[in-house]
Design a protein that fits this description.
421 residues; 50% strand
Length: 421
């Protein structure tokens, strides 16, 4: 039986629109305006300024009670701060005691909340060729002013936490044509390392080093009961994919089975796919669907197909959803908990809702930088200009509502549904 089976869209049945949750969540959105940090709470409908000066990027805790944020100049994050999402709260510099480097200024790179009181970060330095990750790992606590070094430079990397925050995947990219990359599983709270696999370092034809994307999963639909359900997927392209001169399945899909104690590497758990380095496979929340961009026609034409695939019995049932040119067809993003995704195509801000087995549904108005609170509510900027409205709207029904009028060179914001501690 061939690896890939092409089928007509109408043979797969999914709900016509994303299913709306039974009750609306309480949620918060934080945004940057002219270097200042603001917050809006859905439970009060009120805006609140949290910090002023040189704010670059906000990161909301999962309970919505705190906002961590980077500060810096020229888009270089020099420090990480945190503030309570309450009136008159004072921001705290979490990286004030981060040890300085001898020859370069340490910059903040990746930031993620480990839990509602603790963050994980890695750092970078700026050299003449650009920003270079240190591949280290630090833990920062709201209760302590002293950063904790978990892995020194070269022993950490890009990290992806699992949904229940009991483990994370650590990626070291290696050096193209010289040193392989590594995939490591790290358990929490002990930070115990489990070496999973190595892979040939991937060329990006630039100074940027390639970190393969990770997708954690703990559930699967009944139709995919034969697929592994606990662990994570990783899409690994051939090291020379960016130079590929032919249409071949250059991207390999591996799975790491993880039961909380033992990790098992499943080589080529799914058949390889032909995907662009800039549109690698992305899994839905339940892992029963995959989306990616596939080059079509002459490679120099920069034409791509958006491919949606259903995972069934260790096979991919693929459908070409739409076709477009680079710059006009955006990379798809899955909704948080359902097998629907959103992608941009056409005029700037034109977004479409898609699902395997359903025709595309155009969002009623142009939206920029959409971010989903849940599978129904999304927040977006009304324009890609220095003055725009920050608004929210439901996918299911109803009109969009304003949050704030923002003056900023680009939209920079984060959203978070309030979750119990």
């Amino acid at each position: 039986m061939p690896y890939r089976i092409f089928c007509l869209l109408l043979f797969t049945i999914v709900p016509l629109y994303p299913l709306r949750s039974q009750s609306l969540p309480e949620w918060v959105v934080s945004w940057v305006e002219q270097g200042n940090l603001w917050l809006w709470d859905s439970s009060t409908g009120q805006s609140l300024q949290l910090a002023s000066g040189e704010v670059l990027q906000p990161y909301l805790s999962s309970d919505g009670a705190h906002t961590a944020f980077t500060r810096g100049t020229a888009d270089l994050a020099h420090s990480l701060w945190v503030v309570s999402n309450t009136p008159n709260a004072s921001p705290i510099n979490l990286t004030e005691n981060l040890p300085p480097l001898q020859e370069s200024q340490r910059l903040i790179a990746q930031v993620a909340w480990q839990d509602n009181q603790t963050l994980l970060i890695n750092t970078a330095v700026l050299n003449p060729l650009g920003l270079v990750r240190q591949d280290d790992l630090w833990q920062l606590s709201l209760a302590s002013p002293q950063p904790r070094l978990i892995f020194p430079a070269g022993q950490g990397g890009d990290f992806t936490l699992n949904p229940d925050r009991t483990a994370f995947v650590l990626i070291s990219p290696g050096t193209y044509d010289a040193q392989p990359g590594t995939i490591t599983l790290v358990t929490l709270p002990e930070f115990q390392r489990i070496e999973i696999s190595t892979f040939p370092a991937v060329s990006t034809a630039s100074n940027y080093r390639f970190y393969p994307p990770i997708h954690w999963t703990h559930t699967a639909s009944d139709s995919n009961a034969s697929l592994p359900t606990g662990g994570f997927w990783v899409a690994l392209p051939d090291s020379d994919l960016i130079y590929a001169a032919s249409h071949e399945p250059h991207v390999h899909l591996h799975f790491v089975k993880w039961d909380g104690t033992v990790a098992e590497w499943l080589q080529d758990a799914l058949p390889p796919v032909e995907a662009s380095l800039f549109g690698l496979p992305r899994w839905s929340a339940s892992s029963d669907h995959v989306a990616y961009l596939r080059p079509v026609g002459a490679l120099e034409s920069n034409q791509f197909e958006l491919v949606l695939a259903s995972l069934e019995s260790n096979m991919l049932i693929e459908s070409v959803y739409t076709t477009g040119q680079a710059g006009e067809l955006g990379v798809p993003t899955w909704l948080p908990a359902q097998s629907w995704l959103i992608y941009e195509q056409g005029e700037p801000g034109t977004h479409w809702l898609a699902a395997f087995g359903q025709p595309p549904r155009k969002l009623p108005t142009a939206v920029f930088a959409p971010a989903f609170v849940d599978d129904d509510i999304y927040v977006y900027a009304s324009a890609a200009s220095t003055s725009f409205e920050l608004r929210y709207a439901p996918l299911s029904a109803g009109q969009s509502q304003p949050i704030a009028v923002v003056q900023n060179p680009v939209p920079v914001f984060a959203v978070q549904a309030k979750r119990a501690p």
